[in-house]
Design goal:
elongated; mainly alpha
Length: about 110
Amino acid sequence: YYYTLVFHDVVDIRTVFLEVLASYLNQGMDFDERLEEKEDDAYKALKDLLFSQDLTIPLVLCDVVPINEADSVAKALIRLFESNGMGLKLLNAVISTEVKRTTAPATLFRSSSM
């Protein structure tokens, strides 16, 4: 985006952009720090969604993932939750959901389920 302003055809737009950029740089603005803050905020929002109290997102993901991708998704979820100290919570939620949905005990934990 910045490149389009720096090399814009209209000289006045280039001039204004460079003046604003120079002003920020003279004030000592740290662009990397602002970018890291935005990334941290986005990462925190994603973690809040994934690790919500009822684990809605991971449980829905388990329901919709194609069976040929279930192993890799399951491994990724376990690693993610385990690294945040919530591995047992995830396993408990997935197992409880599987048990609640089953109509016959013989069909529990088949390869067609996460």
